[in-house]
Write the structure tokens for this entry.
Amino acid sequence: MKAKTPASLIAVLLFQAALASHVLAGNKAMPGPHWSVQVANVDTGDVNLDPAFKAAIYENLLDELTKTKQFKRVFRSGDRNATGLHDLLILKTTVQSYTPGSETKRAITTVSGATKLKVLSQLCTPEGQVVLERSVDGNVRFFGSNLRATYTLARNVAKAIEQSTLPAAADYEHFGSSRDSEHNDPFDYHLLF
């Protein structure tokens, strides 16, 4: 019988340690993305926002949500591939406030000229039930273009979703069709941060 090399012995020990931790954890599979998300068009409400900012918020949200790997798929608003999915959430973004900044002022002094955005982000079921709601800020305070605030905002929205615990998609499948029942709805709450 051939003696084991130290490298193969280490590999066997690491495998056994991983297996033991898996057994101790209750044999639960590693959590993966359970939901797909469709990003709705940005609602500016009563806020006077340049169309370039609205488009940049939308595009940056798509990019940042995809980077998190929190969702199976990230769909654009109106994408027909999202129609009929049982594990779909819709991200609604409403601009609450916008303070235009000045790149020149930021370059000269670091205490003025900040561009600030604040939005209300909601993850909703297709039936409109809110699963997650959060008010999120984005800004550019020092160097960079004013549109950089949209990137910061989208990154903060994605981070807030990533750090939240979403209900399991299986719960939605079970309760999603019971709209007539008053108390069997697992989405009868708001996760406010």
